[in-house]
Amino acid sequence: MLRVVVLISGGGSNLAALLGECDAPGFPAEVVAVGADRDAVGLDHARARGIPAFVVPFAAHPDRESWGDALVAAVAVHEPDLVVLSGLMRLLPPRAVDAFAPRLINTHPAYLPEFPGAHGVRDALAAGVTETGASVILVDTGVDTGAILAQERVPVLPDDDEATLHDRIKPVERRLLADVVRGIADGTIALDPIAASSHAQPDPDLTT
Ligand SMILES: Nc1nc2c(c(=O)[nH]1)N[C@@H](CN(C=O)c1ccc(C(=O)N[C@@H](CCC(=O)O)C(=O)O)cc1)CN2
Ligand SMILES: NCC(=O)N[C@@H]1O[C@H](COP(=O)([O-])[O-])[C@@H](O)[C@H]1O
Fold first, then answer.
1. Which positions are annotated as active-site residues?
2. What is the side-by-side strand order in the sheet with 148-155?
3. Which Pfam families does this entry report, sorted A to Z (predicted)?
4. What pTM does this model have?
5. CB-ligand 1 contact for 89 (6 Å cutoff)
6. Would you say the ipTM is above 0.90?
């Protein structure tokens, strides 16, 4: 059984969907803990199931690296086989990436490398594209520059706003994430340390 720690920042709807997948008989993974960089309401999805929930407040640390070190320590307690960033709205500093990679993945609501960053849905709308997507990637020291493990196109409709488009993207994200976690657990997806190496140029902002 693959031991998974999920990290979030917000409502955790994608976490809730993964928890539901884990309930299915034969699903080869279990969420053993959920963490956040702030007091995220989504942690209640874990608490309601008796799954350990923890907060490592970014604001409580003098800099990103020290926050990252504290996060690594809090995650390591749970001895994960895989760390899933599912709505963690905080860039991990290089030491934290290196502590977890290549068993570190992220879901993003865009068809990477299109629209990376904190506002992928908003940016797709602003660009006026007729399609965007969802992606699951390995996490490296860049911003959404890791190897792509799964992605799928999602249409943008003329009357979409950020909420309606994001609501169309999320179910695709959830399915892709479940498929990737299942694939990692059953060995059909190999997390290649080379592919996951920090080949990206570290984002200079990551050390602030
Ligand atoms: N080292 C990495 N860490 C993280 C990555 C990554 O690719 N490399 N992905 C993010 C998730 N994400 C996009 O998928 C993302 C989230 C947040 C940001 C960002 O700029 N955050 C700001 C704070 C924004 C805020 O407070 O609202 C920051 O960290 O300073 C960019 C991309 C997870 N971590
Ligand atoms: N760049 C990172 C990013 O935008 N992540 C996105 O935040 C949402 C979290 O929703 P949730 O808290 O309801 O699961 C998800 O769509 C996730 O892909």
1. 108
2. 53-55, 29-36, 2-8, 82-85, 104-108, 131-138, 148-155
3. Formyl_trans_N
4. 0.95
5. yes
6. yes
